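Journal club prep, shared notes

We agreed each person brings one worked example of a sequence with its structure written out as tokens. Mine is Gem-associated protein 2. I'm keeping it raw so we can talk through how to read the token line rather than staring at a rendered picture. Sequence first:
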Amino acid sequence: MTDCLREPAFVVGEIDNEINFSLPPASGEEYIKRVIIEAQRCSDIVVADIDSRHFGQPTIDVEPLSGCVEAPPCLGPMLDWQQCQVLDFSNIRLHISQMKNEIQTAKRQWKPPQTNLPTIEDGKGWIQFCSGHNEGQKNVPSLNTVLCLNQPMVEQILEYLVEYIGTQKKLDYEVGQWLYALLVVLEMPLTPNMCSCLRSAARTCSIIRANSKNLEVHEIGALNLFICLVARYFRQLDMADP
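Then the structure, token by token:
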């Protein structure tokens, strides 16, 4: 079978190695002969001689993103606690999903809230709104407010909050409330951007947990909770605490 592949496709006769390559070929047969001669002159293996001195040094250091930082002794959650949190979270999501379905099918009466919400492009406005820094007004994430957010808004606000947590190096109580509420209404399957966002959230929480020396019990619980939900509910299992 393979022998037939080695047979020449064209019969070109005898090849004269004294062909003058400075002149154009006089016929198609002569052109084929020139191709054969040039192929015979090529080495079977060619290795480039690269001078590394011509390559510039990288201007930035890129560190690969790792999983979550291991919890310090006595700060990591027990497995049964994590399982309870995932079950509670799943039940809340199911209840909210049923409510949204009833609203859409007019089985449940619902009126949008009268609160003036920031626009989707107003990242600073959403940070102030969710963190309680909006003229001292604490905007607790009510069910009505969360239900009026469409999915692009949910994802965008989550990105704002995750970036804010990473910048502040802490998880405020008010921001934690909003983070949990938004995760409750976050639709699955996750988009690649949202998957990356949630992983960043879990990683940031693990860093805060590992670096902070004077965390309150409720702060440790909140950090453990978000790591748990990202890892075990949203299936980023490589980030899970043992």
